[in-house]
Amino acid sequence: MKVSKYICFTLFLGLLSCGQDNSFRGYEPPRDEAEVYTENIDQIESYLKTHFYSIKEDGSHSNFKRVVFDTLSGDNANKTPLIEQDNLKKKVVTQNDVEYTVYYLMVEKGNEEEYKPTFADKVALTYRVESLEGGALLRDNRTPVVVDLPQSNEEFATTKGVIAALTEFHGGTDFTENPDGTIDYDGDFGIGAVFVPSGLAFFNNPPMTTLLMPYEPFVLSFNLVKAIQMDHDGDGIPSYMEDLNDNRVLDDDDTDKNGVPNYLDADDDGDGTPTRKEIIIHDTNKDWLTPDDIEFPDTDNSGRPDYLDPNVK
Ligand SMILES: [Ca+2]
Ligand SMILES: [Ca+2]
Ligand SMILES: [Ca+2]
Ligand SMILES: [Ca+2]
What we know:
The chain is an alpha+beta fold.
């Protein structure tokens, strides 16, 4: 089973066909999302009932841990199935009226004194991706990859399903990105895994580089080395707070309709006064801001804060 995907993939490269399906990926039109979700969650829950996990040292760095999954059979028949683990958690993500349950395994929560990322931030992580069927290894990044979640092209870490889990963890201390691209870090970071239904990832059209079939769920295990709050336009408002309609998408918030979304626009209402001069930031001793750290004056009591109100400059 482990090799079949690769054989299939190799065949695809040569023959542009694979298995019994006529096309390898990019099915059009897409199938019904709720129907696919039902199949995916069955597959995920069946995996959680028939597999257990263990933790291994990762040879690449003394602090890195590897979450290893195996089936409950033979000598391992009496291990605790994932579904019965206290640290298997779940959250609901709603998309197009489908309520997705995202299961994630919280092996280490990370250092709670450190930043907990949002969907709009930058994270550094190592990660492995495996298919649920046969456990084929699809990706194995053992040195930390730095991913700016709203802007990166990195396929797996920027999916909604993976972000849903990453945002439940904290990074670790003493993380430094050196000028030469290498990274130093301590060992108290978040360690976990997330089981991702295809609807919260690539659905009918997984990029070739993922090696996934259309509609195929996957498990991604990770070490969240560090999370950094982002203020992409440097206007003083963290990017996650520029998601005004609260849909976890940044590109569709553009107050002055100038084609530049608020998270990249340092003058959000286009009145010529930079946003930074229309808000008041209280100094904190941390490397990040919360809503309580920022004041948004509304000088003309219009109900719109000055930074979003072109009538107040
Ligand atoms: Ca704008
Ligand atoms: Ca802005
Ligand atoms: Ca302004
Ligand atoms: Ca204004």
